[in-house]
Amino acid sequence: MKSILVQLDTDPQPSVFDRVVAVDAGVDQLFSHGGATPETVESLVHGAIFTRGIPDLSRTAIFVGGSDVAAGEHVFAAVQQAFFGPMRVSVMMDSNGSNTTAAAAVLRARRHVPLAGSVAVVLGATGPVGQRAAELLALEGAHVRVGSRSVERAAETCEAIAGRVDGDLSPVATADPDGVSTALEGASTVIAAGATGVQLISAEMLKAATDLEVAIDLNAVPPLGIEGVEMTDKAVETDGVVRYGAIGVGGTKMKIHTAALKRLFDANDGVLDTEAIYRIGESLEA
Amino acid sequence: MKSILVQLDTDPQPSVFDRVVAVDAGVDQLFSHGGATPETVESLVHGAIFTRGIPDLSRTAIFVGGSDVAAGEHVFAAVQQAFFGPMRVSVMMDSNGSNTTAAAAVLRARRHVPLAGSVAVVLGATGPVGQRAAELLALEGAHVRVGSRSVERAAETCEAIAGRVDGDLSPVATADPDGVSTALEGASTVIAAGATGVQLISAEMLKAATDLEVAIDLNAVPPLGIEGVEMTDKAVETDGVVRYGAIGVGGTKMKIHTAALKRLFDANDGVLDTEAIYRIGESLEA
Amino acid sequence: MKSILVQLDTDPQPSVFDRVVAVDAGVDQLFSHGGATPETVESLVHGAIFTRGIPDLSRTAIFVGGSDVAAGEHVFAAVQQAFFGPMRVSVMMDSNGSNTTAAAAVLRARRHVPLAGSVAVVLGATGPVGQRAAELLALEGAHVRVGSRSVERAAETCEAIAGRVDGDLSPVATADPDGVSTALEGASTVIAAGATGVQLISAEMLKAATDLEVAIDLNAVPPLGIEGVEMTDKAVETDGVVRYGAIGVGGTKMKIHTAALKRLFDANDGVLDTEAIYRIGESLEA
Prior knowledge:
Three copies of one chain form a homotrimer. Chain A is an alpha/beta fold. Chain A folds into two domains: 4-97 and 252-285, Methylene-tetrahydromethanopterin dehydrogenase, N-terminal domain (Rossmann fold); 101-249, Rossmann fold (3-Layer(aba) Sandwich), CATH 3.40.50. Chain A has helices at residues 16-24, 41-49, 69-81, 98-112, 128-139, 151-162, 177-184, 203-208, 246-263, 274-285, and strands spanning 4-9, 29-33, 60-65, 90-93, 119-123, 143-148, 168-173, 189-192, 214-217, 234-238, 241-244, 271-272. In chain A, α4 (98-112) packs across α9 and α9 crosses α10 (274-285). Chains in contact: A-B, A-C, B-C.
């Protein structure tokens, strides 16, 4: 029986990126639907669960994607609400690559720093990738400083994450260089996940952060958020700091994405959210 | 040469249900088009008939679907009008599962009751599934009572069916319990295909219908139209009446759907409408 | 690794014609996107180039199609602008079959007439197919008469073509029979690519064109542009003139289309425009 992946993308055009990865992960048949909304997915999900018999439902799965992560979260929730008891299929959410990118960044950091008990800073932590990276760092037992230009928004993000994981999270204001420098004091890890084109850490600030061991910049368009990190940097050690750019993290991200797609077909009840995708990435490190 | 099924769906999103069944029926390549209209299908049909040579056209076929049966009928007609003499491909119409569901219900009834000369009642017979079930019962030689809350609409439906098959059809008004009970007098078979959430036959009325041998309720959402029938009932005999719910009929429906899709590729001139699909279902019973 | 063709079609529904040809050309996975615009293709192209590694990019390609050739040209340009250095995939443009049809017509003419130094007339040369046929005739060294009802538009088309190929092109006004007859004086080849339903050359005019050796009419809907040519004519010689209709050229067109699609996967940097597609067709003649 052929494996079927139903791609529910919130953009008008379903992502070619996600389509290529699905094909390369070995999916036999890919049903790509653009313009997915919480309102329209119910009948699509019912089509996925009411055709094949329950023992065969593990051969069908759903992938939620698109550039708008918040929209994807709503579709992800709507998909799960459309299931009927045992009539369900596995579902993965990775809008804008948010889950796989955050997982890859934290797994890469973990290779260089024992995260438990360490201090980790996430800049741009109110965005979808930043928030997920903060969640995973907390999960690993790090003391996570959740950075945003607005300390109120940072605090909201801490609360949101605390609703999902039991961790140590504190909001930090990073509106100006002093705020960022304070946030970096004593930190071993920094992950920059801020908006495109905004430099958050200068070379000078980086040099002053003497406890820093890993600096990861997830921006894919220059100028990057951390001066001195290149997009293609992959575990490049300079001045005692191991550096990663978006492309440097990309290989790990792609492996996680591919592995998670394959995992979808192991059973018919997988829910691949941030943590589940991270655990899949973790299993690849072994 | 790969088999290609062109799915023309009148809904914005092409049905995942129909896509899965097509894959499981062994279609090699499925071209799914949502938002099909009579106006836009001509060039799509031309694309299907003007590429491969005439001897290979049996490897391409068209499936018309979507939740709106009337819209599907218009697309089904437009598809056939776009053919050019021998340049044509086989086409099947099953919007909202209307043809396969009606065929499955009547074939199931036929297992328990010799239909020819018997009295059969269809409740909700003005809807797409009900109308098709009435047509097929007439085709089998039953005296068909075509039920609707409005006797005028029931009469219109009788006329519409009489334009297609030569049978014995009479309109019955089922606006109130007395009307329904009168309709059931002397009937061996009842098929309920009414609107969601409306109970048409109470347990008491069912008990009073002493000639009844089969009761089929095609509603997929409770409360069903016949009290005492469960959605999962499949040939369950209680108080002398064999009962079927929507899921109980579903297996037969799915087999007919799959067989009809396969039959599309036997030749390049099949037109799988209500009766043709019923005949395919009939051949599976042998 | 599976071959992937990303079909970017400017029509709301991606062409079924192009889909069937892609399947029959052996494409493993076809990603069909309707409604493609220059604005929306960038992220789709990025999805195609940023997933597989550079050595594997030759297994992915892009096809630009749709009924509107001008819209297709803009998308074709936008696709190429979205590439990043070596991160690119091969791309073919054949909106409305314009490139493959023009190539087939000129290759067919060439079988019967040595084009270099001969006089060739294109009627309806300001349209997308006519303009491409004129370009290819000029490339072959013919003295090309570029015909249009408006001599100003004909002159604009000559200039446009001269910007791409180094050839001998002259505008001719074909608003009335005298203009057409003058254009045909001394011509060996005529290709009619005018609007549907307009007869440009009467049987009498054709007889008077005593130097004419090949007459090709690309109109697919009668009445055709050249009286006495039938749609199905394929190298039919009558009164000393070899005749082709649209269907007569269709076999060659289809072979070029199929061969070009296969060629897309030879490397990751092919740009299959009018001339490149013609060269592919030429290689099939050998």
